[in-house]
Amino acid sequence: MLLFWSNPEFVRHRRAELRRGRAFTVAAVVLVLCVLIGLAAWASAANELEMAQIRSARFGRPTQAQLFEMQQRLPSEALQLFYRSLMYTQAGILAFWSLFSCAQAVSGERERKTWDFQRTTRLRPADLMLGKLLGEPVLAYFIVLCCLPIAAISGLAAKIGLLHVLSAYLLIVSSALFIGLAGLWLSSLFESRSRGVGLIGTAGLFAFLALSFNFRVSELPGLAGFSPLAGLPQLVEPSGSATALPTLFGAQIPWLLMSLLLYMAFGAWIALMLGRNLKKDYEEMRPLSRWQAVGCAAFLNFLLYALFHPHPWSPPDSHSFTTFIVIMNGLIILAVGVATLAPHERLRIWWCKRGAHEATLLSEDGPPWPWLVLSAVVAYALLIWGLFAWRRVLGFETSSLSGGAIQMAAVLIFVTRDVLFLQWCRLTRLRAPLIKGALYLCLYYIASLVFTFVFSVRSEWDGRIVYSLLTPAGALDGRSYGVHFPVGVFGGMSLQLIVVGVLVTLIIRRLKRPPLTAAVVGD
Amino acid sequence: MIQLSKLRKEFGDLIAVNDLDLMIPQGEIYGLIGPNGAGKTTSIRMTCGLLAPTQGCVRVNDVDVLGEPERAQQYIGYLSDFFSVYEDLKVWEYLDYFARAYKMSQPEIAQRIEEVIAQVGLEVKRDTLIHGLSRGMKQRLGIARAIIHQPKVLLLDEPASGLDPKARLELRELLRSMRDQGATILISSHILTELEGFCTSIGIMEKGRLVRTGRIEEVTAEETPTRIVRLRWVGDSAESVRRILAERLELSNISLDGNGGSFHFVGSDDLLAQVLATLVSANVRVTSFGEIKQTVEDLYMKLSQHEVM
Ligand SMILES: Nc1ncnc2c1ncn2[C@@H]1O[C@H](COP(=O)(O)OP(=O)(O)OP(=O)(O)O)[C@@H](O)[C@H]1O
Ligand SMILES: [Mg+2]
């Protein structure tokens, strides 16, 4: 476990950020802050007692006996408040610091031009990952280490129980590790040219982690486990507050366990992506191999069924559940598509090999679309299983299976079109092709929205036709039953299939163009 | 030993390195020259495993760089053309970091750091923060980093930029001594005089291809069978000397004026000696007589002109 202590990358951060003078200063500041928090906790508890005394004098309530009891409890109340504040502060510091330091770890080194030297050492991606994960926020870990004895003693003194204290620290540290890992992954995806997007991504990740707390009241309550705030309250309060527990296949599990499961599962995927890519050149990065991407899609689908928790008084019917799953799969397949885009040179080699009958369509360097189809098929198979597994709540209807098939096909066609468009952008000589391509797609969908609006002014039916032709929304608007979709949906699917055909031809045209020899300056 | 076979790199539809074949045996100092954008940096980056080639294979010290990157890295020292260093570390800490990253053994590290610091002349700065070093000192530190693990193969992309003349000399000496210990060195440079008299072989790169490669004398000789000889004398008139020289058929382009001049000559050293003997026996009082060596720069200019035509 002490492997990280001699990790060169960790040692570097430790040396640079924890020089003796600085470490002493930080420890002193932490101590002073602890004292201040302690005073504030005491003042707050004393204030409460004072208010009670005033109320007692005015209204006779609480009674003298109750007041006396409150007085007795004052030190332990204050201690508990102190402990709680300390734990939340530590969780906040560690999470923030981990995210924002790790989210610049790799992109920052790329920008400073120190990254190549790390890549030419014998450090394995796992070494780099571990070193950066613990090294980048080393100062935050040091702060927590300084707080630890004070928090632990106050927790024990406040009768929180050793197990609870340990569990709370486990949650705080594991959430910080997960958040750091996610930040590290983000930072590996960006370089100086796309730094703005990286920043937006970091802010987005932060917002997700902060807001994921609200999933508590959704039909996927387990997702709230991404936020340490879901599990921490029960661990730091002696009685444990009574919030609803998350479910796994309908069975309730503690929040701590839920969070740990999510962190481990998603952490493993992120670690896999980092391990594959950390030592690769930026242009050659591909988050997952194609089979892994399909596996990831299957995992995410599986997770949806596992975390699903229908509202007991108004469970969804199988149609709306199917639609929900298909919408989620639209996002998942899009992510698979983006993760499996092929770099220009690889695709060209594949094309040459394919001409010589040496490569198949389902190849690591081939075009992304066969993998999207595969992901959709896997998702559909899981949908059948999921509907079956949840049949007692949702009711198993074959019409939702057939309807689901058509919805899935519609979503697949639209997503394939978008992914092929991105792939085509990647073959042009645009700078930052993916970001530009994504912007064009956003523009397209905004324009579709405007058209829909314009046409629906004339009649609602016209508006529906327009959005069925241009977007997958027609198949997903929940107004159809079984296989009885309006003609516009099928029209839209056929239209988009033609667009897909055009994009494939464009891509092949690009691949057929002979490459240029480098022009030399001065020629 | 460095072996590149059929190495190719495409960036989109641009071929930066075009089916490069190159074999540098152990103990060579190989200079790679070429105009901006010729593909030198791209080739070096592929050689040290930073960039995956579109096609082709790189072997360093008989290890496949693509197949076994971690094993290959222990033999490779690399210095890129533009780089920076961790400003918040001390000089010795920086070297210690890389020594650990190359998985050197702990007792070996301390000794090696002192050795390398002495080799690049940074002894007085050992305990200062890198933040306070000058540009040239950082370049020296970069060189120290590249050699900390005693690599068998050293890949240097424009290593002398920012170094003062003394440091350049020291760098040459350092590289020579590494070569003597059996290292193979690939060095790219724009400053051609820098490679002269120091590289054992050169390669001239253009548009992603090696247009000439080989030992320095061979490449220069191959390109210029005609040698240019310059002479000076005292006493006789230019006209009388020209008459003597014109009798010899191996000579052409004789241009003399006052008490000196030059001529072109094709033939062996023996013949050249005879030319001098003829002059002396005709009582011309020769004060100097010598061949003008082709510089790498001349050669380079010539070759690029060929390419452009
Ligand atoms: N990441 C990249 N993306 C696209 N093109 C690139 C990339 N890196 C290099 N090139 C192109 O490859 C060609 C070779 O570049 P390279 O840097 O190898 O040249 P060089 O010989 O090192 O030039 P210099 O003497 O200027 O350092 C150039 O035309 C360059 O524009
Ligand atoms: Mg270069």
Can you tell me about this structure?
The complex is a heterodimer of chains A (523) and B (309). Chain A is mainly alpha-helical and 523 residues long. Chain A folds into two domains: 285 residues, no CATH class; 222 residues, no CATH class. Helices cover 73% and strands 1% of the residues of chain A. Chain A is built from 21 helices and three strands. The longest helix of chain B is centred in the middle third of the chain and has 16 residues. Chain B is of the alpha/beta class and 309 residues long. The mean pLDDT of chain B is 87. The relative contact order of chain B is 0.13. The chains are: A mainly alpha (523), B alpha/beta (309). At the A-B interface, helix 1, helix 5, helix 14 and strand 3 of A face strand 2, helix 2 and helix 3 of B. Bound molecules: adenosine-5'-triphosphate (ATP) and magnesium ion.
The counted number of beta strands of chain B is: 14
Query: For this entry, what is the oligomeric state of its chains?
Result: heterodimer
Tally of helical runs of chain A: 21
User: End-to-end distance of chain B, in Å?
Assistant: 35 Å
Give, in order, the helices and strands of chain B: EEEHEEHEHHHEHEHEEHEHEEHEH
| Small molecules held by this entry | adenosine-5'-triphosphate, magnesium ion
Name the overall outline of chain A: globular
The percentage helix of chain A is over 70%
Query: Structural class, from secondary structure content of chain A?
Result: mainly alpha
Instruction: Indicate the percent of residues in helices of chain B.
Output: 25-40%
How is the main sheet of chain A built? 2 strands, antiparallel
* Cα Rg of chain A: 28 Å
Number of helices of chain B: 11
Which structural class should the secondary elements of chain B be placed in?
Answer: alpha/beta
In terms of DSSP E residues, the strand content of chain B is 25-35%
Low-confidence stretches of chain B: none
Largest sheet of chain B: 6 strands, mixed
* Strand tally of chain A: 3
Rg of chain B, Å, rounded: 24 Å
Number of domains of chain A: 2
